[in-house]
Specification:
This protein is of the alpha+beta class. Helix content is about 25%, strand content about 40%. The strands form 2 sheets. It has a 4-stranded antiparallel β-sheet. A 4-stranded antiparallel β-sheet has the order 5-4-7-8, with no helix packed on it.
Length: about 150
């Protein structure tokens, strides 16, 4: 009888200890805040960036920001916000495709980017797109600059 009582206590203790250990392990995962989306294109690039140019698309706007050393591009959806669609943002040193930095996806709900590049004393090219739902891309909803913003 004594053996069974001790065994029940030991098993009960082990179950409680395992539950406490599991809860302690999972607590940091539950307590960690989820990354939130930016509420403006400028906020997506971060502090210190100011808008220096933009290009309107039928369903969104491609924004170019600068902070004194880096350029940043964000494509912000103006239509179908909250609905997953193809959206992209890209930037590169002018006429140097190997330097391209881009962000694109077919399930973006609000914006693509930020993508950043340092281009001191050089020209850049920047681009973006915002498509309709259905993963059917049309050229009307894509834009790419020529060589621009040199310096």
């Amino acid at each position: 009888m004594q053996f069974r009582e001790n065994r029940k206590r030991v098993l009960g203790f082990c179950v409680k200890a395992a539950a406490i250990a599991f809860a302690a392990t999972m607590a940091p995962l539950v307590a960690m805040p989820l990354a939130s989306a930016a509420s403006t294109p400028a906020e997506a690039c971060g502090s210190g960036f100011r808008e220096i140019d933009h290009h309107d698309l039928p369903l969104g706007t491609v924004y170019l920001f600068y902070n004194g050393s880096d350029n940043c591009v964000v494509t912000w959806k103006n239509s179908y916000s909250g609905t997953p669609t193809i959206v992209s943002a890209g930037i590169q040193l002018a006429d140097q495709p190997s330097t391209k930095v881009s962000d694109s996806g077919s399930d973006y709900k609000y914006y693509a980017g930020p993508v950043k590049i340092s281009a001191g004393g050089k020209c850049i090219q920047w681009d973006g797109e915002a498509q309709k739902p259905g993963n059917v891309a049309t050229i009307d909803n894509y834009w790419k600059s020529g060589s621009s913003h040199c310096g």
